[in-house]
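Appendix B, Record 12. Input sequence as logged:
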Amino acid sequence: MTISPVALRRQTERKPHPTACYWKKCDVEALFGLPFLDLVYQAAEIHRQHFNPREIQLSTLLSIKTGGCPEDCAYCPQSAHHNTNLGKAQMMDVAEIVAKAKIAKSRGASRFCMGAAWRGPKPKDVETVSAIIKAVKNLGMETCGTFGMLEDGMAEDFKKAGLDYYNHNLDTDPERYNDIIHTRRHEDRMDTLGKVRNAGLKVCCGGIVGMNETRAERAGLIASLANLDPQPESVPINQLVKVEGTPLADAEDLDWTEFVRTIAVARITMPESFVRLSAGRSNMPEAMQAMCFMAGANSIFYGDKLLTTENPGKDGDRALMAKLDLVPLAYHSDATAEGKRLPENDVLRSKAEFLRS
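Logged structural output:
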């Protein structure tokens, strides 16, 4: 079934971003077709209107329950449908999770993201996860969870426990969604996003590129994200990490300029969202990452692992940020403070503290 882009807009009780507008897929594709440097320049200008271009939000992602997922996502090594030699593990102990969160905070991360490999939490899981959220929140960090599809009331329970963000990606162009995933529908994702919004949680929602999609289909993904109402506060853009045993293990490599274009178009269409370089960064040369930051990326996953895939080590990221004169964004309990420009002396002080940590 073909899903009209109009169906992607879900009205909620929250007010939309004042800069949000409706994006036609053809208009987003036209942005992709701009001359490369013109596109990056336009995105950089928009980025500087809304953010301090030197600040990078650092998140750490931990898999608190790994493997054995009943979903059949073609890109995911945690699916029970694929032979990836990744075993099913039980939920991590709360104390172990808190210990890892403390390490992440000491290294400069302001947000701790937790993921669980299941279709969605059962009622008994909500109590366990809520206790974990409370424990991490008590460390003075932002919290984010990616726990799959939610039933009524679960988002409110997580909000009460102290969850700040809920991650629920749209994955790919809605018109090819069931080419990638057969065990759920695009509408299922939209339903959970609506529950998350109405519970008062912030939304982290992005997708994956490099899954043999066309440029038009990449435009469809970005349009579907930009037309969420309100737009996501955080937009992770993942480059496919090819894992042996998954259906996409032999996908064609995406040219690096096309990935940078995707970042730039995300920034132009979602000017007030944090755009995160997510999975696949370990395969990106430093110059490519620098170009992504120029094009409007202002968040990364910081740590040696992303769920089950490799990520650049913290020392490498610190060195890259030092080369580019970038500093970690400090956590503000008041969400309205995020993105405000720091005075230059504060930026320099933040950089010095980060390098010493």
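Residues 98 and 136 are 6 Å apart (CA to CA).
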